[in-house]
Design a protein that fits this description.
single chain, 302 residues, alpha/beta, Rossmann fold, 46% helix, 16% strand
Length: 302
Amino acid sequence: MRVDNARYHRKINENMSKHSPTNVISFQERLLKKGPIPLIPTPEQDAALPMMIAVSSGKGGVGKTSIAANLGYVLSTLGKQVLIMDTDLGLGNLDVLLGITPRFNISHVISGEKDIGDIMVDGPGNMKILPASSGIQALTHLTRSQMDLINEQLLSSVAQFDAVIIDTAAGISSNVLYFNASAQEILVVVTPDLTAITDAYALMKVLSIQYEVAVFRLLVNQVADAEEGREIFNHLKLITRQFLDVSIQYSGHILKDDHIPKGVRSQKLVSHMYPKSPASECFKNVAQQIWGAMSKPTRRIP
């Protein structure tokens, strides 16, 4: 289904209007709606912080974890020191995607058994991986103190990296919002699927209201060609401009490519296993674009 279909556009508009406020949100309402604010780095920590980018989505199944891992891998092949942090804390699967079996994970940090530096493991391309747990329901809704514990340890443990990629869970849970707000940049992943687009809009809306995030980057996955990706971006940009006080910047597209599921079945990244494939070329372009654009971060939590 192509996005120039009039019925498709009309459905997107109808769904966006359902999510959109009819009145300007007052300052008092914003205060009441605010979520827990991440810890602010000290001047010393801030000077030493790497580029921190959250890869997020409103809807599951859009390829977010694969994108986070492939972008990290490509950056590592460009000589960057990269850490990928899996923050889908109850259903983490980054380790499965990469074919690694870590002994410890973030649950051991939250319990006080380990520090973040103790649980980092090696990934492909000299990346470091911070694994999440899987099947622990209590970690899907962290307390404020647990969130701050992770954030505080992260701030003091990542100075050696050039980039930290935060692979969030999908949706708008408190965990998702907090880890997005902890990053300097937010890369929202969508596909041509109508529900993926409307859920991405909802994610940006909540982050703009609760955390006053004003700038997002958009990556369109599983497209037939570059034109389809650009059309989806242009339409979503138009809708957000109409209903939200945010700016969306285009970070590119990833072509639909049969090499990706082949890599997943082999627990290998497509950028590693099939470096000349169409999707791998897209990941190279997106990684280079993001790294160049993000040398100067566009947002911070005030």
